[in-house]
Amino acid sequence: MIDGSGHEMNPGDNTVNAANPASGDPADALPAPAVRDWRTPLELLFLGIVWGCSFLFMRVAAPKFGAYALVELRLALGATVLLPFLWMARARFPLRRWPTLAAIGLLNSALPFLLFAWGAQHAPAAIGAICNAMTVLFTALIAFLFFGEKIGARRAVALLIGFVGIVVLATGKSAGLSVGPAAFAGATASLLYGIGYSLVKRYMSDLPPAASAASTLGCSAVLLAPLAWTHWPAAPVPALAWACAGALGVVCTGLAFLMYYRLIQRIGPARASTVTYLVPVFGALLSWSILGEPLTWSMLLAGVLILGSVAFSQRAR
Predict the structure, then answer these.
(1) pLDDT tens for residues 233-274?
(2) Backbone torsion region of residue 219, taken as left when φ is above 0, otherwise alpha when ψ lies between -120 and 50, otherwise beta
(3) Residues paired with residue 177 on neighbouring β-strands, in sequence order
(4) 305, 2 in Cβ contact below 8 A?
(5) Alpha-carbon distances of 173 from 58, 85, 95, 162, 294, rounded to whole Å
């Protein structure tokens, strides 16, 4: 499952990818069952809305900032929110590990964020939100191709269905214009998330999730800074775009990570991963209801195919 910061939690294990959630001691006292019963669905709903909003925020802010400047703000703000966790765990981050952290940050944060931001400049927000759901399937594919993990017949079929969904999405149009380039950018971003998660699981599973998220986001912000500087918008940026960029970094990339990880600690990764199904739904609905962007039949069909393939693959677990 991918969070809005570009980090993923595999529903089948306890490794959190470098940019999702927080902290709190797992031994913290759990709430009474009656409280937990109503709180969990509300938190899942809230996370689905927050990560759905991330695509709306990109759609508003990316045309004003450009992809490089917007992603730089997102990375820097997200890393700042999580920085206290890195400081507390600084002894576990010797210098020899930072090149690996930087490389993973590029694959798992900077490049996917750039692709989604570029797509948001050229197509409705729903396109990126729907593509993001493919991360679950791409993670299984990368683990199979490069790390020797079994994929199974069900997941193989699910991948084929998901790819059909991407093709359907890419062949559609919005306002008479092709959304193909944006759809393929979103699919590539999801593939990079899958690669990044596999690397996190292999090289960073011994590190605290919130601290490792801060490190990879911070490295990405430093590496992207020269490009962001040279591509900084010349014209004044409207206040609304600044607000969306701030919310994208602080809320969708930093705070949501903390909430998601705490949710995993309380209810487990499999149940927490159900938020995967909410993000495309809210991304599409918010795009339609707030921005007035059309919901086309190709988007709806692609959403059904992709989310259906994810559900089908997870039934095998």
Answers:
(1) 999 999 999 999 999 999 999 999 888 888 877 877 667 777
(2) alpha
(3) 174
(4) no
(5) 20, 44, 48, 19, 10
